[in-house]
Design goal:
The protein is an alpha/beta fold. It has one domain (7-116): Thiamin diphosphate (ThDP)-binding fold, Pyr/PP domains (Rossmann fold), CATH 3.40.50.970. It has helices spanning 7-17, 32-37, 52-65, 78-81, 84-92, and strands at 22-25, 45-48, 70-74, 97-101. Strands 2-1-3-4 form a four-stranded parallel sheet, with helices on one face. α3 runs parallel beside α5. The protein is globular, with a radius of gyration of 16 Å. The protein starts with 6 loop residues before the first helix and ends in a 19-residue tail after the last strand.
């Protein structure tokens, strides 16, 4: 049987292989397992922020100063939409950044329960 790796550990390993040394994040339920993976990977560090938009601005500034680029991690929903301004800032100036957002569990989707089948 092959060695198994958790997706959260794989994400940090992937970022590390891409040269990311610092991640700016806002913790939330949908990203908690990835944040926990930092305790197992000492080659990449994170900085907690007070708002998702500040995470994207910090990642943008970090990448502008180089030599490596940075990433953000946020939870799903509003956590993700709060990244938009910072992403646009990096996009328009061609600044490399990576943004990872949490995902809802399947059992939290409206179509999972009969009582919420028609909820938008």
């Amino acid at each position: 049987m092959k060695n198994k790796i958790q997706v959260s550990d794989y994400i940090l390993s992937f970022l590390q292989k891409k040269g990311v040394k610092d991640v700016f994040l806002m913790n939330g339920g949908a990203i908690a397992f990835v944040v926990d993976a930092f305790s197992r990977n000492k080659k990449i560090k994170y900085t907690c922020v007070a708002h998702e938009q500040s995470a994207t601005m910090m990642a943008d500034a970090y990448s502008r100063l180089g030599p490596n680029f940075s990433a953000t991690m946020v939870t799903s929903g509003p956590g993700t939409t709060n990244l938009i301004t910072g992403i646009a800032c990096s996009w328009f100036d061609s600044i490399p950044t990576m943004h990872i957002c949490g995902q809802l569990n399947t059992n939290e989707l409206s179509s999972f329960h009969k009582s919420t089948k028609y909820v938008r």
